Amino acid sequence: MTVTDIELCERMKRGDIDAYRQIYDRYHSQLYYYALRFLKMPELAEDVIHDVFLKLWEIREQLKPEFGIVGYLYKISRNQVFKLIKKISTEAELRSKVIGIIEEQCIEAEANLQWNEYAQLLGGAIDQLPPQCKKVFNLCRQEGKTYDEAAQILGISKHTVKEHMMTAMKNIKKYFRQNADIVFSLLLIELLK
């Protein structure tokens, strides 16, 4: 049988730590995502939720169980989020830390976007390869096979595998030069080495 919030609130009001833990387990995730919507940084959202539950324990004797616990939790969360935002705006060190985290996230997002562009471009380049070059490239570069293993799988010589790889790399580099801007092409060519 599930214990209601009212029962948990009444027990917590009397100092029952187990009831407090159950409330924490029940609402931590919801409150975390609520705070994250405003703060955009997991570390700060987690700090806020930590403070929320500390505050809840501090005011437990003032709770009115008949009103439920959810309203208290969201009100405390909102207040803690606003308090932290105000603190960020006034403390230079914290502000620079937040700016650093945001810049990191932007750089990471940009890198992911560039990686997706690279993957699409590489996919297009591979699709343009002659069938045997494509097989060799996929075995050696995508699956990590050695030239000997690829030769054995395809029933061709190691020398032929090497020639197909040279042709594939030449064609892929040419495709990159034709289909990507110059800086991006140079980066992609370096990645393929």
TrEMBL record:
Domain of life: Bacteria
Annotated RNA polymerase sigma factor 70 region 4 type domain residues: 121-171
Transmembrane intervals: none
InterPro entries attached to this UniProt entry: RNA_pol_sigma-70-like, RNA_pol_sigma-70_dom, RNA_pol_sigma70_bacteroid, RNA_pol_sigma70_r2, RNA_pol_sigma70_r4_t2, RNA_pol_sigma_r2, RNA_pol_sigma_r3/r4-like, WH-like_DNA-bd_sf
Gene3D superfamilies from the UniProt entry: 1.10.1740.10, Winged helix-like DNA-binding domain superfamily/Winged helix DNA-binding domain
This protein's UniProt keywords: Sigma factor, Transcription, Transcription regulation
Residues of the RNA polymerase sigma-70 region domain: 23-87
Pfam family membership, one: Sigma70_r4_2
NCBIfam families the record matches: Sig70_bacteroi1, sigma70-ECF
Family: Belongs to the sigma-70 factor family. ECF subfamily.
PANTHER family reported for this sequence: RNA POLYMERASE ECF-TYPE SIGMA FACTO, RNA POLYMERASE SIGMA-70 FACTOR ECF SUBFAMILY
Protein name as it appears in the record: RNA polymerase sigma-70 factor
Taxonomy of the source species: Bacteria, Pseudomonadati, Bacteroidota, Sphingobacteriia, Sphingobacteriales
